Queue: 2 jobs
Job 1
Amino acid sequence: MNANNYQKLLQEANLVESRNILKCLQNLLECVQLLEEDPEIIKNSTKEKANLKIRILRLGDKLNVDYSLNSESLESEEVEEFKEAAEPEKVVEVEESKKPKETEQVVESKEEIKSEEKPEIINIIYSKLKKKKTITYNEYFSFYSYVDKITREEPVAIIREESEIAYFIGDTHGSYEESLIIITYFEKILEKSPDVKIIFDGDYVDRNLYDLENLTLITAFFLLHPNNVVMLRGNHEDQKINKYYGFYRNIKDYFIIQDRIDEIYGLILKFFTRLPIIHVLALKASNNEVKRIITVHGGIPVDIEIPSNPVSLDDLESKINFKVPSYEHFDNYMSWLLWSDPKENVIDYELHPETGRHYFGESTFQKFMKINNLDFMVRAHEVLEEGYKFFFNKRLVSLFSTSYYKNRKIGNAVIMRLKEKNGSFNSPEFISINESTMNKDIKENF
Ligand SMILES: [Mn+2]
């Protein structure tokens, strides 16, 4: 009797696997249960059970649900979650009906943002990512729908702020675990010093496997602390780049519901075109001394027509065409801002004839800093084993804030702090991204 049941369940599981994963999984789970109750029903039941478990885990993976296998699991919370994820048709309906009609979108969303509290989905996503728990498609979709709504209002290219303490983070490139350490550190700092500025300098995706998690964690942190956190755009926040360097592939692997992959990818791409490009910070000491710090992912804007004329940021703001999805549509300024590199032995600027890379030298840099009344520049965009590198008499620093690149450990990643010490500004402090160093730093500095 049991043996018959077992065969029936297994056959049905095989039949429905491609179109009803949930049903398939339920059958496989029942098979495991039967084997546990009565190992005699088939030969080699231990081996068979192991195979079933692998198959179940793999199917669970496809629905991105952590599926721990024990006999209670049929009743567990995960299964409920899992059922939700396995019913795409129903989900589409609900989400579609929530969407405002195209023409009413802007007006409606502004009113909604004013009147409504931050949706619970931010907290759900944030706490799940902090506990390294799996997020379902629906949760991702609600989260990025909210991001889409909140960022739809007129985006700005340049953000200007002031602060007494500021932190800077270079490329994080899918290094989810390290970003978790960074963000846990910032949570502790925000408790002690609620006015710090935290500037992420772009390139959240590509290069490492967990870029969806990394991007989502940083975005959730930004949404929870919009007055403290800034997310700048990097050259990988670009559909043409991240379609080929990992992000799109990772999203595809993550979500089995194929026809909805482009939906969530599309929301994220729209978000990327609304990220600011430049951050200008007036860093204040207690004696009223002020340092002006510019942060950008690549480098300074250069006007190719008249390269000897430094570009003023005020002029740039009205000229720059930044709300575009891909470097193919970038204007000349955007290419420099997101793609260029500083180079010591270049005098003005250099365009590499083969690679098309843009380099700027010290004199062009110093002219730009002078006309814009800037003291120091922070940029990212370069793989650095030590995590940071100074250029141009220490007036420019390049930061790299992941110690993994292409899923390999490459060195020591850091973040940077700027603040006054004893009335004036000390040099930048670099803090290695690991829990004990960061805990020690909080004890010593706050
Ligand atoms: Mn980059």
Job 2
Amino acid sequence: MTYSISGKTNIDWAAFEAELAPVETISEPVLVKKRSRDFFWYSPILNAQLRRSFGDLVAVPKSASEMAHCLRIAYKHDAPVVLRGGGTGNYGQAVPLDGGLIIETTSMNRVVEIGDGYVTAEAGANIEEVNKALHAQGWELAIFPSTQDIATIGGFIAGGSSGIGSVAQGMLRDPGNIISLKAMSVTDDPQERVFEGDDVNQIHHAWGLNGVITEVTLRTVPHRDWIGCMATFDDYAQTYAAGYALASAPDIARKLVSTVDARICEYFPRLKEHLRAGKHLMTSLVPAEDMGAYRSLISDQGGSVDLAMSEAELAEAKLPHVFEFAYNHTTLQVLKADRSATYLQIGCPTPPNPRAISDLRPKLGDDVWQHHEFALLDGQIVTFDLPIIWFSTEERLREIEATYEANGFPVYDAHVCMVEGGGLKNADYTHLAWKKRMDPKGLLNSAKSREWQNVAHLTAEEIEAMTPA
Ligand SMILES: Cc1cc2nc3c(=O)[nH]c(=O)nc-3n(C[C@H](O)[C@H](O)[C@H](O)COP(=O)(O)OP(=O)(O)OC[C@H]3O[C@@H](n4cnc5c(N)ncnc54)[C@H](O)[C@@H]3O)c2cc1C
């Protein structure tokens, strides 16, 4: 019998499922619907658009050859395909807008090799597990997302951009951070192709629409005894200035520098006994041997070190990793208490300028509570604002964005599910040319690219040639 959970495909999914054997499948509608979601609900705008978009069937391959089998069957039936790792993406990246087959990678999870300065893992490897395997051998990932407990390494490379470690190691796309990756084509005979050096960026952050990542090799750095630090300050601009001082200190290593408005800290109940009430917060990871210099820096900047605990001490105190109060986890902590919160993604003037931050604050309004992440971009310390927004209407949201823009803070739209919409403001024709080569029928997550519809009829070379000079 033909059935379609999505209501968008005309495929006999029972027969399709039978053809996928021996690959594990999930066809129970409740479970398929669950695996059709990611963290798009952070955005009330995306929530309204995406909450009723579902796939039709889930496949859970255990190896590259099982993955190839899934892709061969999808190609044969012209079935739309969306890859899914941990499902922690923010913009509906993993939502199957056209229905079809969801391929969950979490059973392709082997750590293949650990060597000096690198780790190779299958795409579905859980990032925390990769880090644990690395720690045992004296290494750690140079960069990982704050979602490491759930996210996969392939999902991070396909959907993410930066994370814990970026303040010292830069963005994922920077040379050497992704050493190589393997991506598989969606054809009648799926083939794996290796991308190395700068070529990794032909696949990285393309939201899985131009190839199925099966394996990645990432840069690792020597493991250090990181201390989770929380320092508090009276004034937000002062907190931001301290963040910049730490992010650029010559004598203190750091893996995380994040500053949060005092009003957001009210939504961190687990930290209540540990932080001074009503103060602005700077969260950092600093190695044990640099704690003396860190304490002096905080004191010089007029702050107070309220919490400094090793990973073991945090676990003993039943506290989460400190990075669960940074990056998009900050928004999550607020959303746990009140679903009317949402967020924006904003760039800031470089070099970081505390005066620009304090001048902007009164213009933003009481429904905007700032939160900055510090990172290294093109060799310079930069900051991103991921403010909490108390959502009232889309009109007000766009007005806040316009205030940021008018004051020299570029907006990266967090409320759009198109790859051209948020981080990548313009179409990436190199990504799309590789889509043409790796996915000639346009089955992979195609609904997430506006521009794909315009160029799908061209050759890969014609698409590549559209890259602006
Ligand atoms: C609370 C919170 C905190 C976050 N913090 C960070 C952060 O610190 N840094 C950061 O960069 N992001 C962050 N994110 C976004 C997201 O968590 C990361 O990008 C994460 O690494 C995605 O991994 P995942 O396995 O969950 O991917 P998914 O959400 O499953 O997938 C993400 C995208 O990649 C595609 N994809 C998945 N696997 C493959 C594959 N094998 N081949 C091809 N395409 C694939 C999917 O189709 C989708 O388009 C955060 C999100 C939340 C909700």
